[in-house]
Amino acid sequence: MTSPLPRWLMLRYARLWKAFGESEFTFRQAGSALSENPHRVSVILSELKKRGWLTVSIDPADSRRRIYRLRNPTECVEELGEEAWAR
After folding, report:
1. Which domain holds residue 31?
2. What are the pLDDT digits (tens) for 18-69?
3. 29, 71 in Cβ contact below 8 A?
4. pLDDT at residue number 85
5. What whole-number distance in Å separates Cα of residue 30 and Cα of residue 48?
6. Is residue 67 part of a domain?
């Protein structure tokens, strides 16, 4: 399920999308792309995951690390439209 993003989060999603597209990235790479402190990056990634715009998996080489991947914005918007019409 996908939910709409508030403006502050959409701006950060857009910056991440420009940097990575649908490619995988790490927490550190996200921090570099966003130019935000680690606590803020954690909040951003958590919110994107909670709202369905980001997937998270465990790094097969190191189970303490996570691998992030943004969902395609077109898919997310289509899901939002489908959910709106289903109500």
Report:
1. 7-86
2. 999 999 999 999 999 999 999 999 999 999 999 999 999 999 999 999 999 9
3. no
4. 72
5. 12
6. yes
